Amino acid sequence: MDPIVEVVALMLGFASWVMVGVAIPNRYWKTSTVDGNVITTSTLYENLWMSCATDSTGVHNCREFPSLLALSGYLQASRALMIASVVLGTFGLVAALIGIQCCKAGGENYELKGKIAATGGVFFILQGLCTMISVSWYAFNITQEFFNPIYPGTKYELGEGLYIGWCSGTLAICGGVCLVFACKSSTEDSKSAYPYQPSRGTVYSGAASRRDAASTYDKNAYV
């Protein structure tokens, strides 16, 4: 496998893993909309863990959600998926670091290292899928409430935390796909048969050739 592809895939996976760590504590997963409001004295914003408010003087007040079981189902699922994304990304980074050719941790068995690197690519893909499902599900509920004319509560818009999550998921999936397919093609090439293989039934010996030449010479001497 091309070492450049390995390094690029590893960098994409690492960048996606860092962005997941940035997206989880980001406070602006959704922000209150100003659509239809003439005067706004405060701005509300939430993430997976807390709800905050900012008044016109710039004072921030945040309150953590008091109960996990009292939260909406999609919010609990988004929490679990984001945590799983961090764990899967950690496994992917470790496997990719061991499996790339420029790392000597796995020895000189490049076929085994390729399989380990491909496993890291699978972890990156799973990380990206978990992140994309989490942020997309969260965004779907925001838009559903926003366009619902009879929704009585505060309406929100998409925050920057969701965009960071989408970017993270895209990078993770791209890096994982590159790593998996590059390692797969490298493994298949190493297992392909040699283009020319002589028949095993015929064995040529140097001693036998010398005996044949000697017998021919002896016959010619008596002619």
TrEMBL record:
Keywords tagged on the record: Cell junction, Cell membrane, Membrane, Tight junction, Transmembrane, Transmembrane helix
Cell membrane is among the record's keywords: yes
Compartments where found: Cell junction, Tight junction; Cell membrane
GO CC annotation terms, alphabetical: bicellular tight junction; plasma membrane
Transmembrane feature ranges: 7-24, 80-100, 121-140, 160-182
Protein purpose: Claudins function as major constituents of the tight junction complexes that regulate the permeability of epithelia.
Identification of the protein by name: Claudin
Native source organism of the sequence: Astyanax mexicanus (Blind cave fish)
